[in-house]
Amino acid sequence: MTIATETNSSATVELFKKYVIPNYNRYPVNLVRGEGSWVWDSEGHRYLDLFPGWGCNLLGHCPPAVVQAVQDQVATLIHVPNTWHMDVQGRWAQLLSEHSFGGQAFFCNSGTEANEAAIKLARLHATKGRYKIITFEGGFHGRTLGSLTATAQPKYHEGLGPLVAGFTYAPYGDLAAVEKLIDDETCAIMIEPIQGEGGVRIPQADFLPGLRRLADQHGLLLIFDEVQTGCGRTGHWFGYQYFGVTPDVMTLAKALCGGIAGGAMLARREVAASLRPGMHAATFGGNPIAARAGIATLETIAHDNLLDSAQQLDKLFRRRLESLRANCELVRDVRVAGVMIGVELTLDGAPVVKKCLERRLLINCTHGTVIRLLPAMNLTTEQAEEGCDILIQAIQESAGG
Ligand SMILES: *Cc1c(COP(=O)(O)O)cnc(C)c1O
User: Fold this and answer.
1) How do residues 326-383 score in pLDDT, each as one tens digit?
2) How far apart are CA 117 and CA 263, in angstroms?
3) If you take atom 5 of ligand 1, which residue's CA is the nearest one?
4) Do 296 and 363 fall into the same domain?
5) 116 CB less than 6 Å from ligand 1?
6) 9: how many CB neighbours lie within 10 A of its CB?
7) Of 273, 303, 333, which closes a domain?
8) Which domain holds residue 245?
9) What is the residue with the minimal CA distance to atom 11 of ligand 1?
10) Catalytic residues
11) Is 253 in the pocket of ligand 1 (CB under 6 A)?
12) From the CA of 242, how far away is ligand 1's center (Å)?
């Protein structure tokens, strides 16, 4: 049997039609190569990518330090199980701990797995009879059944019941509602410090401190799902630092390994102690390749001052998009936290995404009306201005009909 090596977009679309389960809406474009914030299709067209890797490629496509680390590691040791020690996993955990609140790490391969670990840890750590977890409307925590139940969005639950027992939902931003939901069986509050999929929703300044206070009063764990806000996205190492509110447990994935699959849960040492041998596992979790990629990602962010770059990009996007809002009634709100950017429109955002794709700019629309950008921290000023030019024009043209 031969597999075609020359690819083109229409042949690839045909392959997918025949052999790949159609559980994603895909653009009819076959991407073959990437470098920084540029990506190319099989016809040789170049695109400016302001949504690289759905938030995973926080250092852009093929960051050289990650490429080098993975190439080196793959020729040295690809995988050994977690019955052995491996220095790279240990050093990775140390770096994450030192850049955050000093906890210990459990490694897995994705965001939903990191959240499953946090859900299990919350129940294992709780005193007898406590098992309920409060999560938030519009949140997103992943697609496996525990994380899916934590995801308080009915559209993702359709047809999948019965779900996991023990989750209760509060409106995002509503402290009084959270307080009402807490009872003798509650063990944790789990939240994204900024809702990503839910439309880049940034909470009011008193909300996360209020949750911290409630958690402390009632002996609950505060779990931050930082799968999207983590690893520099907000211009701080982690989203919790952006708000100055420290959780007990934090989950990471997406950008954690600079585009290589990887996930992690960090927990305060006293909490982590509740996870003992045999209670949880992930076969590929913390494997040497992910570990090397994870270390290279953190080192690149530090070495290249990318937290500063993200803060500069924050200002640039804020300036451009706020001035659009002032002049365009289609723009309802602009929300920016580092390189996490939402533009809420008064109408469906899908046609704007399509217009941008025609002009070779890759963006995303979430929650129907929110244009979402998750650009790389090392996006250049020229690329950012060019992306804003195209996006702003696409939005303004939508006003014309
Ligand atoms: C993407 C995402 C997840 C799920 O991550 P997967 O790696 O797709 O399982 C969970 N939480 C948040 C906040 C996310 O953005």
Assistant:
1) 999 999 999 999 999 999 999 999 999 999 999 999 999 999 999 999 999 999 999 9
2) 10
3) 111
4) no
5) no
6) 17
7) 303
8) 65-303
9) 141
10) 140, 225, 254
11) yes
12) 20
